[in-house]
Amino acid sequence: MIRFTLNGEPLEIEADPDKPLLWVLRDDLGLTGAKYGCGQALCGACTVHVDGQPTRSCQTAVGDVAGKAVVTIEGVRGEVAQAVQKSWIKLDVPQCGYCQSGQVMAAIALLSAKKKPSDAEIDDAMSGNLCRCATYRRIRAAVHEASRLLGG
Amino acid sequence: MLNLSALGALADSTLSRRRFILGATAAGASLVVGYSVAAEGSGQPNPFVAYVQIDPDNKVTVFSAHMDMGQGIYQGVATLAQEELDADWSKIHVVGASGNPKFYGNLAMGGKVQMTGGSTGTASSWRRYRVAGATAKAMLIAAAARKWGRTPDDIVGENGVLRSKRSSATATYGEMAALAAQEPVPAPVALKEPKDWKYIGAKNLPRLDSPAKSTGRQLYTIDVRLPNMLTAVMIHPPLFGATMKSFDAAKAKTMKGVVDVVATPRGVAVVATGMWEAMKARDAVIVEWDESKAEKRGSAAMLTAYRALADKDGEAVAARRGDVDAALGKAAKVIEARYEFPYLAHAALEPLNAVAWMNPQGVLEVWGGHQAPDLYQAAAAQVAGITPDKVKLHVMKTGGSFGRRATPDADVIVEAVATAKALGWRAPIRLQWTREDDMRGGRYRPAYVHKIVAGLDADGRIVALRDTIVGQSIAKGTPFEAGLVKDGVDRLSVEGMANQPYAIPNFRVDLTTTDMDVPVLWWRSVGSTHTAYVLETFIDELAHAAGRDPVTFRLDMLADKPRHAAVLKLAAEKAGWSNPPAPGKFRGVALAESFGSYVAEAVEISLDKSGAPKVERVVCAVDCGVAVNPDMVGAQMEGGIGFGLGAIVKSRITLDDGKVRQGNFDTYKVLRLNEMPEVEVHIVKSAEDPKGVGEPGVPPVGPALANALFQATGKRMRVLPFDQTST
Fold this sequence. Notes:
A: alpha+beta, Ubiquitin-like (UB roll), 2 domains, 5 strands, 37% helix, globular, B: alpha+beta, Aldehyde Oxidoreductase, domain 4, 27% helix, disordered N terminus
């Protein structure tokens, strides 16, 4: 039995501890916001927060999140999440949208740690999240916009 | 994606307007407007397909004949219908339509196939979605006038509300829908004049799917959940052209969560309760392959062979005017170059997938990114052993495509249906490729070699240009061959070069089509991915050799190509071309028409300490006719530029003895956020009917970058990608 909190709720599940968190979320718990893109922590589409840190759920064994707090895009709350999602919608960032759950989770983590990131800090925090539609210019602009909304 | 102008054999100029007429029907208390064969003179339109539906709660559904892979065609068709209908924009939603090519057929491809590709969605939709919206509006107004005892000219409808100008009567569209469905279908309806447009060309129309896509609520094929659904992963042959002899799944079948391991026409499917269980079990299956007919050549041997072929006359001639050889013989200066292009994977972020379920009514339901629904319906029916009318397709939004989900052999659809069938239809099957399956699954942009030669006269004018193209045909062996391949020339291999715009008196394009057994496909902007690169870097080289400015050198050859010339001038002006770049900055420019849209891009770069280029800024000018959604035109240009840059600089698929070397994004490199330049998009104001924007942003960026790099380094980049060090 593995215990952790998921989107603020305590959870107990019976699972192989080696099973990647991504597939526990998607196949066992029906939370499909985190996406499968590469399975090797190379694209960022599966990004969730573990104890507030942006984490690639495809390469995180569910056994390793025992006792920790997991937040997926379905469960993000608070002013940073609101500012990020509002900015994403205002600037019409998504094209296909498949990577955007991961982008949004990475941006929330960045802005939670740093209210007013520089372009170089955005590069560092967000370049691991691939977007094949290349919405990168708008992603960067939306991070700055969210920062502005947060008073950064 | 598919070239719209090339589908000659599929075009049907006799497609009768009488058969393709507007109809309307009631569905409960909803008004449904669409197209039918027998609406005229008969009570019940049949068959009938819906374009616009208005429900009693004022919800408006627009049925899109085109699939949305991120390019935003759902927004486009909604905008077109909305322009005439003027519903409550917040109540509009769009769903993918399929099932009747006669009425959802792509008008830009002749109307006989339903197909998303070739950047044709807006062109195909331009008139009919406005007509559908206008018809629904006219019927709503007629019903309101009748109910309120007014004349139709007293009724206005705006933002989803009907009101009488001279009385106090009001009603929502939804409240009037049931009565409107009883009104006769008006024919013809008048469409608004461009000066009266409120939505077409509007800069601030919110994109309908941004909220769902920013909050994780958008559902893709990978997210489809059905009761008792099982997940299948494939074991594909290790070489293209290899076939399965036998397999041993004894160990795999004992593993936790594994349900079955079955043969399909395209490999072995491992079926389990979930993706991880299926992937783990896959490693335990032992398959014996017959590789006797497989492709075993590697990239190096292939390129050696292609180079030798490019040195000879082509096996076919794709374009010829004047006498190139004679003109070259008299030229003051002759320049020659060879270019090499690798295979490229589409590498959309959602790996290929499909869900197949034989429902209790005996209808096979298939969820997927159906870019070619007619083909997929037929393929699914054939595998299932049923008739196509018993196949219902659910058109899902997909995590990209870039052409990959318009596959003539319906690869992943066949696998999903064959797997579900092999399990005796006892469960819905979600068939999901891994990233490695997707990367190694073929259907690449073909590899090409070009040999190009040109002559300048004493005044520095191009007197002759000859290009010889060597590579595989995309259309050969597909249902599109008859329409696309003529006299040995696949138009997809030569587009962008055979129809190049410059006034060059002696001109010839040769083509030799090769026989590599590596499956190939249209990849965002198709032929222009390589032809525009060759043409536009070579024109730059000729301008340099002639001592001319690359912009005026081109403009002198574009006297009778005003739309080409206009975008080139605009991009140059906005990039500040007439002033030299700042110290340490270097510029290049390129121009390409593709799919009826004209795009010029000026690239500004700097060099980092290692000498690698950093693309600082791209200024893009586009003429796509009427810009239905200007912000989305901008988005597609930005995206096309980023997609093109990554490929030109970093991406390649290579083969070792027939085996694909790359498997994931560590070895198949694509553009990342820190490499994305600033992009400015300038749209030419135009009254021409709209053309596409999904692909045309891609072709100019590579050559513009290469031309800037030449300014910085004096080196011409002729072997792609620029980075030859990665795997």
